[in-house]
Amino acid sequence: MSPVILSITIIAYFVILFTVSYIAGRKADNEGFFVGNRKSTWYIVAFAMIGSSISGVTFVSVPGMVQASGFSYLQMVLGFIVGQFIIAFLLVPLFYRMKLVSIYEYLENRFGAMSYITGAWFFFVSKMLGAAVRLFLVCLTLQLLIFEPFQLPFLLNVALTVFIVWLYTFRGGVKSLIWTDSLKTFCLVVSVILCIYYIASNLQLDFKGLITTVSESKFSKLFFFDDINDKRYFFKYFLAGVFTVIAMNGLDQDMMQRNLSCKNFRDSQKNMITSGILQFFVILLFLMLGVLLYTFTAQQGIINPDKSDELFPMIATGGYFPAIVGILFIIGLISSAYSAAGSALTALTTSFTVDILKAHKKEEAILSKIRKRVHIGMAIVMGLVIFVFNLVNSTSVIDAIYTLASYTYGPILGLFAFGIFTKKQVYDKYIPVVAILSPLLCYVLQRNSEAWFAGYQISYELLILNASFTFAGLCVLIRKEKKVGVSEPNKISEQ
Question: Which residues form a coiled coil (predicted)?
């Protein structure tokens, strides 16, 4: 496919994106940047969050993963829905009641300064690495399709990609994100539906034939109850889905600051439930697309790529279909990738400004200057991390994203769980030690689980183990309650 056509398509897309961002971000202030002045309409937020949940990694990895995993990923998505309900009815009312800007302020109120800093830094590392990995995959695709044909270096690719993300989030923060993400979600959903349509038409399948082909495919097996040692075992995926979405949505500043931008917690609850259910059907579309892609390669005698991530890009842009399919692939890819990256950059700016620098307590003018500098700094760091990924030639798949999240979000999940479900106080200064030891124990356990537990393979339930280790560590740090002196009850009785 011509790189000129792809370039023109991308430029036109970004002109529309920046226009929407500019309109949405007018009259933005600091509060608007962080929480959108709590005036966002819930159904707009719900629609926008679909694009935020589905990154560029999802866009290229999920269709390719059906060969090895079938539809097993939907087991995890079912867990996502349950997790969204827990967030909506447990965490959202709590955060609204406390009027939080950053959700990690809860840890300071509950435990103390060290737990607050620990949560903020674990989020910072988690989100920076996760966002960089996602953007890295998109940069690789753009390098192959556009930059290499024009003999442009990867460094320029990264610089332009990160600059674009920074530019459309600079003015309006969360408010701009919600509206631009709505646009990107629309482009994402339309592109995958039209790709399914064109590929099904090439295979001469009508709607009934499409459903039959997918349902009768060996790749469409959904539930796995047979072997507990199988990584695809239902309860591994389902429970991991529940706790993953609680950690990556409910305890993640990136996703929660959108929910906190709604008018009240009731609207935020509607948003959470609606977006969770809609995400199930969008993921189902990606898996159906994967079945069609493998059906097409088998029918045409095309050799599948060594890496499943490369299947969709190879077929979409390889000249097997009309040029519109390649254009739709690029639009869908950049829509999903830039949606996730933009929200990550805004959340990193919020968390670093509020949690680490404590700048939200300063005057408006000073806060605005600090926030803008932090925003630039986060963009530069993100670009450097992407460039390092390229130097070590580290390719990413969806499994890598969730494994990474299991290590970094586990301590955050454990901290919040202990804080919400117990009333005990702990020795705050030792919390960073527990938060570091828990992932290290998980790493040792995951490396040796097959040898130690008769072939059992730890999958996404690693997040639950990590949070459990953190919870147990906090139990060890419980402070003994001081005995009330004789004078105290007398004082109370006098009152």
Answer: none
> What's the burial of 85, exposed, middle or buried (CB within 10 Å: 0-12/13-18/19+)?
middle
Query: How is residue 320 written in tokens?
Result: 């097997």
Where does residue 368 rank: exposed (0-12), middle (13-18), buried (19+ CB within 10 A)? middle
The CB-side HSE value for 56 (13 A sphere, CA atoms) comes to 28
Rounded distance, CA 40 to CA 475, Å?
39
CA distances for 178 relative to 23, 385, 396, angstroms: 12, 26, 27
CATH number of the domain where residue 245 is located? 1.20.1730.10
The answer to whether residue 478 is domain-embedded is no
CB atoms inside a 10 Å sphere around CB 264: 12
**Cβ atoms within 10 A of the Cβ of 307, count?**
13
Which DSSP letter does residue 87 get? I
For residue 23, is it within any domain?
Answer: yes
In angstroms, the Cα distances linking 33 to 170, 173, 178, 343 are 9, 4, 11, 12
Residue 19: HSE in the Cβ half-sphere, 13 Å Cα cutoff: 7
The tens-digit pLDDT sequence of the chain (495 residues) is 677 777 787 788 777 777 776 676 565 554 555 554 577 788 888 887 776 677 666 777 788 888 888 898 899 999 999 999 999 998 889 888 888 777 888 888 899 989 989 988 888 888 887 778 778 877 877 887 788 888 889 899 899 888 888 877 776 566 667 777 777 778 778 888 888 898 898 888 999 999 999 998 888 888 888 888 887 888 888 998 898 888 877 887 777 877 888 888 898 899 889 988 988 998 999 899 999 989 988 888 888 777 777 788 788 877 787 878 878 778 777 777 676 677 788 888 888 888 888 877 778 788 888 888 998 999 999 999 888 877 765 444 445 666 777 788 889 989 999 999 999 999 999 999 999 999 999 999 988 888 888 888 787 688 889 999 999 999 999 987 655 444 444 433 333
Query: Cβ-count burial of 492 within 10 angstroms (0-12 exposed, 13-18 middle, 19+ buried)?
Result: exposed
Q: What is the pTM of this model?
A: 0.73
Domain of 413, in residue numbers:
3-420
Report the alpha-carbon distance of residue 12 to residue 3 in Å, rounded.
Answer: 14
Q: Does residue 481 lie within any of the structural domains? A: no
- Enter the DSSP assignment of 262: B
The span from the CA of 459 to the CA of 226, in Å, is 16
User: Would 410 be classed as within a structural domain?
Assistant: yes
Structural domain count of the chain: 1
